[in-house]
Amino acid sequence: MDIFDKWFIRPQLNRHVRRQACLLAALLLFLLGLTFLQASPAAAAVSVPKLAGVAPAANALVPDSFLVTLTVNSSVPVKEVTASVGGLAAVSLTKQTAACGSSCEYRGMLDISSLPWGAFSLQLSAVDVDGTASAPFSLALKHNNPPKLQPASPLPFDVADPNLAVSLLCSDDDPDGCSAVKMSINGTLLAQGTASIDQTIAADKWLGQQATVQLNATDASGLTLNQSFPIYVEASDKLTVVAHEQGLVLDSDANRTLIWNAYDHRLRIHHRDTDAWETLPLLVPEKTDLNVHLTPDGAMGGALDASSQGLPDGYYQRGLDPYGTYVNFEWQNGALEPLDAADIRVNGRYAVYRAPGSGLRELFITDTLTGSEQFVGFTDSYDYALDEDGTVVYANGGQLFRYANGAAEQVTQDGSYAYSAPVMDGDTLLYARTNRSTNASELVLRRTGGETVLPGATVVPGDYMTAGGWTAYTVMTAEGQKQLWLRSPEGEDERLTPTSTSGSRLIAVSPAGDAAFTFDGSIYLSRSDAAGRQPAEQIVSDKATMFWRDGWQAYLGTVWYEVTGTAVDPGTGSGEDPDPGQNPDPGDNPDPGQNPDPEDNPDPGQNPDPGEHPDPGGNPDPGPSADIDGNGVINMKDAIAFLRAFGTKQGELHYDPKADYDGDGAIDIQDAFGFAKLFMISLKP
């Protein structure tokens, strides 16, 4: 029996138990599955978006416009995230990254300028694609703007003589107003007050220098405003003030001054005879490429404009990227007309400009007094010259042409040379001549009697000029010395600078043979009289613009000076009126209109019939150069200018045809190789 039980009955019983256990386990798993399936919809129903990482923080002080940032955590895709304040329209915040999974950051700007000063509540909400909204999220904030400063004096680029009037007013939306106003120069505190300053301070410590003004305002809540900008300290006994203006002086005539106020960003024309003002409808943030001049009935030129972006009062600290959009325009009879033009030159009543784009372009001249526009010809080199009589000298196909009285004639004929960078006065013409075979360049003086090569003279635009038959030019010797020279109408040469200096450059020359040049941080004037050439006199800082107009004149910041004792009777003077409005700060802002390229430009084709105006096509710019900013010096500023243009295409912001070496309309890696090669070549002695 024991054997029967061991080998037959017990195994049967064990199999039965195991079978029952397996059935029980399967039943339990089935029940658990049903429970999971029933519970899943309930879990989805209670999942809601959650808000985290909100900025600004609770109880923060926020200005009229501020940035809201938050993170939304949600297992379900989010449809919309909004921020709202009181009765203002809700603002949708933007997701910062498309592929962010279940945790995404959102941002947006809120404008609460219509709200009064003080506390308010910010409401934030997120809604997913199923329509489920986040829990209510309310953030307590305080509307409070920083204080504002209204300086009547000093303004950016102002001049202390060496005393400086300080007139500052602080205002604030806080009912308790401003608590402190301070004014310093180069870090030295010179004046302070509670809500205003009205006194005169002495700045003779910085006589003859450019200095930096620092303004500071604080309100009752502890919010601060800091402003800093350049001024000049000048008190030379060789200068007589003609006008002290409310902005940087750009141009002037007998009754008007064209200025740019760098604090409120406005271009204005001051009618000095009536003290009336014209304000142009532009917000000019900085003087980068600022090229505007007076015309008989208004002004003409180009400038950056930030009107569409908006720009608060205050000196804009220039960065790598210019702020705003560059516009060319004419201002006349109270109306601003945009111009489809480039490289505008203005001289008296005449303006010359080319069609935008690169390659072969149409060139036009306008009489701004009558409004008549005439086609001049085609140019593939943008370094044309214009005189006060409306004569234009320009280059096409490596040859120079002169336009006068409605007709153009070819000036140069030798096809073995490429001619460029013309400068003229009367019957005197200076230009660069480059041998097409050797690529060697030389400066040529042309008069009725023929051509004369000036040995050793550089061909960099700005290194040579002419007036009244006198020619000033720059020489680089075989030893690497930089020298400034002056040639008389009779062909006699004399050296202007007593020693070699790489920092010296020519400024202007007068019809009587006076010459202004820089030396050791100042502008010097070399004058000639019956006794011969006199020792050069130190006149003003080299930050000034100096020019001849019935006497020597200078613009330094907000002040227009006459060099004492140099005025002549306009009836006996030469009548020469060089463009004085260019380059108010020659060390920082080269004239944007001057960008000649003296290199060769093979196969430019024939000068087309002016009456036909054929399609100029894609004829490339004349010869490549690493001088992207066009100031005649190849340095790191040109590298920065190329980097700013890199990756752009024709028609896009920052595209520069001078950086498009292969002329394909896109500045890419091939152009980068071209720039690097030319840049390295320029470093060779």
From TrEMBL:
Return the Pro residues bias intervals: 581-595
Q: Where is this region: Disordered?
A: 567-632
Give an example GO biological process: polysaccharide catabolic process
Q: Which InterPro entries does this chain map to?
A: Dockerin_dom_sf (IPR036439)
Q: Which SUPFAM superfamilies match?
A: Tricorn protease N-terminal domain (SSF69304), Type I dockerin domain (SSF63446)
Q: In its UniProt entry, what is this protein called?
A: Dockerin domain-containing protein
Which classification does the entry list for the species?
Answer: Bacteria, Bacillati, Bacillota, Bacilli, Bacillales
